[in-house]
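User: Sequence in, structure out. Go.
Assistant: Echoing your sequence, followed by the C-alpha cells.
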Amino acid sequence: MFRKWLAIFKKDTLMDRAYQRSFMMLDLTREMFLKAKESLRFREDKDVDLNVRDQDLEINKYEREVRRNVFNDLAVGGTVKLPSALILVSIIIDIERIGDYTKNIVELALAHPGKLISGKFEKDLQRVEAAVEDNLVKTRACFEFGDKNSALKLLEKYKWVNDVCDESLEALIKEEDKDIRPGDAVALGIYFRWLKRINSHLRNITTSIINPFDRIGFEPKENKE
C-alpha cells in the first residue's frame, strides 16, 4: 500500500515537494543528534558545533511548509489523495518531535559540566546510541523506497532499545551504581529517556510503511486472511 502512496507523491508537484522535505528534515535531525551526542558525551567544554536552535527552527519551518503544501493540494485535488496526505503529515510530526528531543539533548549538554559519566551503564548506553544512529539512517532509507520487508526487519532489529532504556533508568533510580554522582545520574536518566523517545518516533515512521493509517505507531499485525 505504501508504494501506492509513493507513486502519488512522485506524480504530484506539491505532494512530491512535501515528500522531499521529509528527507531534508530527517537529514537535519541526524546531524543534530550526532553533534548533540558528541557535545554531551565527549567534550569537556560547552561548545556545540552547530546552532541547534537555528536547525530546530528550520525543521519547524519545513513542517509548516509540508502542511501548507498538503493542504493546498487537497484543496485543489479533493479527497483522492487524503490517505497519502494523512500518512505524510503523521510522519512529519514524528520527525519534528525527534528534532525537539535532539535539541533537548544539546540543552542538556550545555547545562552539564564536562563529559557525561555513565559508569556501569556505559556499555548499554553505547549500544543504544549506536542503535539510534543506525536507525536514523535506515528509517530514512525505508521511507524513501517504501521497502516493507526492510521496515519489518528494522522494527525487529531495534525492538530491544526501549527496554534497555527503561531498565537503565530504573537502575539509576535504585542507585545501583553508587559511584555515579547525583548530577550525572540525573543527566544520564534524562538522556536514556530521550534516546527512547527518539527511537520510538523512528519506529512510528517505520510502521507507516507497513501499517494502514489507523495503526501507525503500533506493532505490525499479521494478516490472518
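User: And one key feature?
Assistant: The two ends are 16 Å apart (CA to CA).
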